[in-house]
Amino acid sequence: MKTRKLFSTMLALLLALCIIAGGGFVQVAYALDDVTVDNGEVTASDGYEVNTTGDAITVDGDDTGGDELDSFDGQPAATAGITASQGIMQRSGDFVIIDLDDVDISGGSGYTVDTIKNIILVEDTASIGIRGDGTNGGNGWTIIIEDVKDVNVNITIAAGTTILGTALEYMPALEVPFGARIQGMGPDITITGRGNGITAIGDLWIHGVIGSITGGNNGIYADGHLTITGNIRSISGSRDGIYAGGGVTTSGTLGDISGGNNGIFASGGDVSILLMAGNITGGMNGICAKGGDVGIYGRIGNITATSQEEGSGVGISGKNVTIRGTVGDISASSYGILANSGGDITISENGKVGDVSGGINGIDASGNVVIKGTVGVISGGTHGIVALDTFTIDNNSVVYTSSLSPGTTVSDMSQGILFVGNEGTVYGDVTLGGNLTVTADQTLTVPDGASLTIPSGVTLTNNGRIQNNGTIRNNGRITSRDGGFRGASPTGNPVQYPPPSYDNGSRSSSSDGGSSGGGTTQATAAPANVPVNVTQAAAMTATQNAIAAARAASSTVATVNFRNPGEIGLSTLQAMANAARQAGMTLRLQADSMAADNRAVDVRITLNPAQSTQNLNLSASTQNAGTTRITNMFAKFFSNGVMTVSLGQQGGFGQTVTIAAKLNSDLNTDNLVFYVYDRTANTFRQIQSPNYRVDTNGYVHFDTAMGGEIVISDGALQRR
To answer: Which of 33, 103, 529, 567 has the fewest CB atoms within 10 Å distance of its CB?
Structure first.
């Protein structure tokens, strides 16, 4: 006996259930012999009888009262292994509902899906609802809606529905026909397939709200064009998050999209992201339009491609790539952004991109690269930017890159600022669109013929160096470290030199000051007070003379004195220490920087060559232009008496050294405080243990492990 259950006044639906290798399918197909539905009237022929009980319509065979399922489309019931409760289908408004909660499948195998045809639709649109829990005890249901001739299929998935198509390895959770439209009704909808999450035989449109779509193969697979106008919290697949045989257009709000191979892959069309998406992650590609263009017009998160296979690992790949929206960081193992087949990469006026990095190149275009928007740092293992045609910066953009490829030329039409490494250049007439900081290790050059305008409300902060060979117009605000400008002075508002700020990190230096006494010998002095680098030959001669003088004085301490020394190498210091050690002596090195008249010592540095770990610069001064400028700056902002000792050694000495400097007679020596001033950062730190003393000749002696600029204050610095 054949049994059919139809629940509809406008539509007719008969459900066939089958087991294949222990899995289940709910299939909605096209034709049913001998049963007709027309304008709500159900008729049957060839021995079938129509029974109506409430909203339920049952079509029975010759045995009109029979409920026994002996066979189904020629398949023995025992083989089919099918049981289904009466509530499996019901009418609700304009929808025919597949109620997954009422499905029960057990046993049986070998039923062929292709033979099931069990729905007749006579309206222009088929409306199908899916609701309930389709986990089926962990085995899962696959819902297949077959193609209906000349009918648009609308599928509504109720909130809270779980579609779990995990019974068969290659089967999706939901398969829909060409042109189907899927509407999700809640963020708690879960669609999980052992094959694809959703398979579309042709174009597919998804709208509404869905929680997650997950596939053991692809999250969403569409043979044609995929359009998403709804909200989907997450899409993921072991192969691709999204795969489309045509293109992909999203104008909804999407969460994270991830795939083992590709986040989004369009095999035969463009990828257009119009509104919003979360992070997009893939192995081979984050976003790829094979033969098509990629356009990002909305806001998306970070894009990552991690594959280590040669030629793969691309953040964004397409013939042309256009970014008019906002993108987070783009990080890829090969190319951050890649435009192939002669295509261009364009970041438009409103485009905003974070850092772009690639293991090979950051941005690589076989055509042009045009940047009119905002980009972070563009870096690559080989080159930051590659443009086989031209590279253009426009719209006053500021671009940072690790390097340009040798064949990449900056267009003469450029209007912006380009930093290659730490070297920045102004191209054309540039007006800053926002605040700009030149960091301590950067140099910005305004070439002859170029101009840089700082408009009202905008600040240019110079912590490094600005070389102005062109024109700088300051209609806003420029702050600079001391000595930060070279070349022509800016016009307009004066440059502001802010007071140094206190850095509360400690730079501790202390020592016992070394031993006193012993023989002393002086190396050849430099003319006047100009520092001269110490050669190893001169140093070894001075060391042997100092050893001899110490023996003559019956001392175990030999002192070498250099007058106006500059740099001395580590190998020279080590050779001096070895010679003294072999002679059974301790070696002390004194470096005397002379005053302007070259008669009195201005600054003396005393150190132990045996403790040296690096090359050293032994020059020093309290009288050069730099010390005067720093002293005047501190005196401007602080009420204390101050003086500055400028040491040629920048950074640490690698040991604690003792400094003796001619003291400014205006200072109160009872409570001297010592600071290390960082000119590039415009900050200062206190030396915690200077162990200072003032001798009868007016020299202040103190210990420090740091070089640079030493500011001495009579008391802790107090702002005016």
So the answer is: 33
